[in-house]
Amino acid sequence: MTFLEPLTLTGRHVILEPLAGEHHDGLVAAAADGELWKLWYTSVPAPDEMAAEIQRRLALQDEGSMLPFTTRLIDPATGGPGRIIGMTTYMNIDAGTPRVEIGSTWNAASVQGTGTNPDSKLLLLRHAFETIGCPAVEFRTHWLNHQSREAIARLGAKQDGVLRNHSRTRDGILRDTVVFSILEHEWPMVRAGLEHRLARRG
To answer: InterPro entries attached here (predicted)?
Structure first.
């Protein structure tokens, strides 16, 4: 399936490039920006867990169920790839429908609220709807992660429901998972909203 092939997506603020082992040190530095692994509602790997997380995502890529990206800022001086700020993925890929979930996303604390997240979502959603031809794109998050739920809702995604006692967190506690989706007929309005948000930031 061609849409499972690693690719690079370039936006206004960020470049999404195929995850690779050589990104390890940059990802460790990005996670240390805010000590993101200490946030109880996220699954950001600690520095000593980053290598294993990269390998886990690449193994899922080899199986065809995930397409992982490293997120970089665009260097304002060159217009090319700048420093690494986080990770994101297409996951739970259903090639037959086709359908994807956008998730396992995190960004360094210092760039949160600067437009990097809506920019990466615009890139991933545009590719999913306009290139892959997905009839729907899904998002999932912890019921108690209100920041993530609000961010997903701001995209224009609709809440489908809550999967109760759906999975366990790193410390073994059962979590409720909130499921959102955007349907293909909703995409033009969602795209316009994201483009407007990014244009206001310049």
So the answer is: Acyl_CoA_acyltransferase, GNAT_dom
